[in-house]
Amino acid sequence: MDYRVGIGYDIHRLTEGRKLIIGGIEIPYLKGLLGHSDADVLLHSICDALLGAAGDKDIGELFPDSDPQYENISSVQLLKEVNTLLKSKNFKINNIDAVLIAEEPSISPFKKLIRQNLAKVLEIEEERINIKAKTNEKLGDIGKKEAIGCYAVAIVTAGRTK
Question: Which residues contact 50 (CB under 8 A, 6 or more apart)?
Answer without folding.
Answer: 6, 8, 82, 83, 86, 93, 96, 154, 156
